[in-house]
Every structure is written in C-alpha cells, then in structure tokens.
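Project outcomes to date are best conveyed with an example. Our students and postdoctoral researchers have been running inverse folding experiments weekly, and each run begins with a structure described purely in tokens. The record below, which covers 141 residues, was selected by the lab manager from last quarter's runs and is presented without edits.
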C-alpha cells in the first residue's frame, strides 16, 4: 500500500513540476470538485498537450465513495477533450485505488465540459465510474 501511495504522489509531483509544452491558449492547471451518484471528490488537472481540437490533461483526485460503507479513494487518469469552442466533449480513463480495502478499480467518464480557453470557471457533467452520473464545478488557471 505504501508503494502505491508513494508512486501516486511521485506521479502527481512530476506532473505539476514538468514544463508545459502545450499551447498558451489553454488553462494550464485546473481544480474542481465533483459530486456523483455515490461519490464526492476534489480533483486537479495539468495540461499535457493540445493540438487542433484535441486536448489532453492528466488528472489526479481524491474522494469518498458512499455505499454500504464509506470508503476513501484516489484516482489518476488522462482526460481527452475534443472541441475548439467553450463546450467540449470529454472522456477520461484511469485507475482508482480504495484506501480501506486496498483494491484497484477502473476510473472512466464520458461527458461534456464547459471551459473557456484561458483562465476561468469550468462546468462538467456526464456519466462514469465510480460516480455514475456526475456534475463538477471548478476553476482553471
């Protein structure tokens, strides 16, 4: 378990320390909170690359799953956005780890994102796992 947590923290540190090679017209760093069918979470995203209508962010989040027993979890994923305007299609794929039961599970979502190209508010909504249906509110820098 310690190796997993240490690996996750190292990955996150490298993402936020690394130099941005993406275009300057996108928010470089995003923070948002999400609420879903059985979860709440806080997330951070770092811009990795953008080319034309495609944008890729690295995401790390920590949250809580509410089922028969409440459980803390962390997730790391890649978010792919498609679109040149403020409203974009988004999909994400990654892995989550539950802290109490030390189990790995898939983390994925498909939805829409409202995000201005430069700094500003962002709204997300869609379906995914473990959230089922989710809504998010955040800010990009």
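After processing, the design step wrote out the following sequence:
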């Amino acid at each position: 378990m310690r190796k997993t947590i240490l690996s996750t923290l190292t990955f996150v540190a490298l993402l936020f320390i690394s130099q941005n090679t993406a275009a300057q017209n996108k928010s470089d760093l995003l923070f948002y909170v999400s609420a879903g069918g059985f979860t709440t979470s806080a997330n951070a995203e770092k811009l990795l690359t953008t080319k034309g209508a495609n944008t890729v962010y690295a995401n790390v989040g920590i949250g809580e799953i509410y089922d028969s027993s409440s459980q803390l979890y962390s997730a790391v994923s890649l978010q792919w956005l498609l679109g040149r305007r403020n409203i974009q299609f988004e999909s994400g794929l990654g892995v989550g780890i539950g802290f109490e039961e030390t189990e790995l599970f898939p983390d994925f979502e498909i939805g829409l994102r409202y995000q201005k190209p430069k700094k500003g508010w962002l709204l997300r909504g869609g379906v995914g796992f473990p959230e089922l249906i989710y809504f998010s509110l955040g800010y990009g820098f």
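Confidence is low (pLDDT under 50) at residues 17-23. Residues 2-140 form a domain with the Porin fold (CATH 2.40.160.20). The training component of this project remains on track.
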